[in-house]
DNA sequence: TGAAGTTGTCTATTATCATAGACAACTTCG
DNA sequence: CGAAGTTGTCTATGATAATAGACAACTTCA
């Protein structure tokens, strides 16, 4: 065969191979930790050159989906959600890009008052009225993180009800006329899940979590909301741009 | 820009442009008969070379979605369903390939006896028991054709109920263990829709129809079913392989 | 230790993708 | 008719995709 892609569909051959392998991983034909067939074998099944397979595997490896070990084979990585930490990242977009369905679920929404720290983050005075939203975010049916979000009760009246209806922070902000926003400085630490979060994340007690604190700003730099998120470490992998 | 495709995603640039235009046609931004923007203008909106736009338009023209008129412009064709007449064609696949959802709807299933002609087509004796299935097939919510299908009542007992449940001839045959089948000789004529079919196809009286008679065989050549289909001529366009 | 099997890297060739410019052929409209 | 705008076709160039072969580097296992 000297054609570049099947039926000149405008989709590169290596992409078709990569998609095929990814589907195999997604539907469990290749489980996490499994060894993929050798490059030659994959090349034969797809009737493609070994280098084309390598191109496909390289693309998957870049996304952290597989890991090649020289002399041994290529292995399926623990299928962690690749979570790029850019200034403009939306949970729904990240999850959707991985071919999974993003879901949001409200746990609790209640009034709160700003501590000195929260007030500083949000550019308010200590004791200012806040709305606190506790929510779970899932990819398909897998809980990824629990997050506590604080917003100004004056700027976003009735925010809890709006989030309950939209199940999306992005849509919540859009409801108040905020068309775009960015994440400011983000702090990442790790910890051990507590009993409450363990139940919410369907996670065994004692498992590690990634703790992320971030404040989102609008395009003018005005603080909109500050978040305290706890990610199931075994299900997510943050990607920081180099 | 000297890159071949956006973010080296494995999808050709012309494909992205073609998909974008096709989406515009699908969601009504460009209606049937409309003139598309000029090639230069499209090139500017997609920030792409004019030749790349031409490649995209050529792909759409090949599928019959648009028609270029030299010196005048490129126009959206009457959006007929492109129906390739190969030996192995499935309605669901054809409709699905066009980005529309295939649907089937049972009108009536009843017992019948083989005329001399039907018996010859199905390899049975005249007077043999048959099941006759009347069905409508749609793309999204647009009726495409009405078809009358005859099957041997002995080979496919209770076929009507199975079709009512599966709404697919392919699945019906699979239910009886037929994994694959091919269409044999196909006869195509044209006619005027009668009152019954006009109502079923949501077609005005007096409109033309394409009449297709075909018999499907299994891979050993044994006749499985014979069909008499009436297509709304203004909604479909048969493609015969060259 | 050695053989077999695996991934990594190199060179080389061909086809396609994408861009660029120029001009012909044609349609539309004043 | 003539000008403006459109699609059609040609040549040319550089980047990428895909194939092909060879060999190095490494792991696994008998």
Structure in words:
Chain A has helices at 13-26, 39-46, 50-62, 91-97, 116-122, 159-166, 169-175, 195-201; strands at 66-69, 73-76, 81-84, 102-113, 129-139, 142-152, 181-192, 208-218, 223-232, 236-239. The first copy, chain A, has eight helices and ten strands. In chain A, 29% of the residues lie in helices and 34% in strands. A six-stranded antiparallel β-sheet of chain A has the order 4-5-6-9-8-7. The first copy, chain A, has a two-stranded antiparallel ribbon with strand order 1-2. By secondary structure, chain A is an alpha+beta fold. Chain A folds into two domains: 6-76, Arc Repressor Mutant, subunit A, CATH 1.10.10.10; 81-239, Chorismate lyase (3-Layer(aba) Sandwich), CATH 3.40.1410. Residues 1-7 of chain A have low confidence and may be disordered. Chain A is elongated and about 65 Å long. Chain B binds a DNA duplex (30 and 30 nucleotides) through helix 3.
Could you provide a short overview of the structure?
Chains A, B: It comes from Bradyrhizobium nanningense. 2 copies of one chain form a homodimer. Chain A is an alpha+beta fold and 242 residues long.
Indicate the multimeric state.
homodimer
Q: Helix share of residues of chain A?
A: 25-40%
CA radius of gyration of chain A: 21 Å
Q: Assign an overall shape of chain A.
A: elongated
Count of DSSP strands of chain A: 10
Q: Give the largest interface pair and sizes.
A: A-B, 8 and 8 residues
